[in-house]
Amino acid sequence: EKTIKIAIDGPASAGKSTVAKIVAKELGYIYCDTGAMYRALTYQAIQNKTAVTDEKQLVQLLKEMVISFEPNKGDQKVFVNGEEVTDAIRLSDVTNAVSAVSAHGEVRKELVKRQQEIADRGGVVMDGRDIGTAVLPTAEVKIFLVASVEERAERRYKENLSKGIPTSLEVLKQEIAERDYKDSHREVSPLIQAEDAVRLDTTSLSIEQVVEKIREIIQTKL
Ligand code: C5P
User: Fold this and answer.
1) Model-level pTM?
2) Which of 23, 42, 87, 151 shows the greatest Cβ crowding within 10 Å of its Cβ?
3) Which residues form the Cytidylate kinase domain (predicted)?
4) Minimum CA distance residue for ligand 1 atom 20
């Protein structure tokens, strides 16, 4: 059977990873969370007190890092050199520094290379910011997921509540807007919809409705 490459891009908290995991599971494909890779490097930089502006040091750090994933009940665990960082890379210190780390061209070059190696193994669903434009420009399916800042902040707020993490909706809104701005305005591979991507606004859609729309698009390519 034919295997294809599926790229899912979009701004922060648009639901990319949620739908990517579901679609990957249904197809029996690899799911690759590229944001987790940028987050893992940011986490390691904080641990090592490496400045987020120090491109050379960041690349050095990255070259010494093995980033690996392990399936875990429909989700994934993330490891850096064998240490589990699944939860640590989602904390706000990492979230608020990751855009600065990911803006460096040499950092992206190294991570894009690793992402392309993962995709070379076969059927893949990869989510991020530059998958359709830079990592997998020949992907058969390209989705650009968007939703209003209000809706995305509210989803994240509810998710945090359910995990018992106290947050402020206003702060979340500001952080999301700021990260989108930085990711869209960097020089190297900014967040932008690929010309041949299908844009899906999920503001008033359920997860199942989004997945169903993506299934329909995939069906035309299989
Ligand atoms: O997807 P997630 O929100 O976890 O990504 C964290 C950050 O990693 C993004 O805000 C962005 O700065 C960076 N990133 C990127 N390119 C990707 C994936 C993530 O620059 N393909």
Assistant:
1) 0.97
2) 42
3) 6-219
4) 102
Look at residues 53, 1, 51 and name the one whose alpha carbon lies nearest to residue 27.
Answer: 1
Between the alpha carbon of residue 209 and those of residues 10, 13, 136, 196, 206, the distances in Å are 17, 17, 25, 22, 5
CB 141 within 8 A of CB 24: no
DSSP at 119: H
The two three-digit tokens of residue 210, written as one number: 């989004």
User: Which residue is closest in CA terms to ligand 1's atom 16?
Assistant: 129
Ligand 1 atom with the shortest distance to the CA of 38: 8
Find the largest Cα–Cα distance for the chain. 48
From ligand 1's centre to the CA of 92, what distance in Å?
14
Query: How far apart are the CA of 206 and the centre of ligand 1, in A?
Result: 23
Q: Ligand 1 pocket check: which of 98, 126, 152 to mutate, most ligand atoms within 8 Å of Cβ?
A: 98
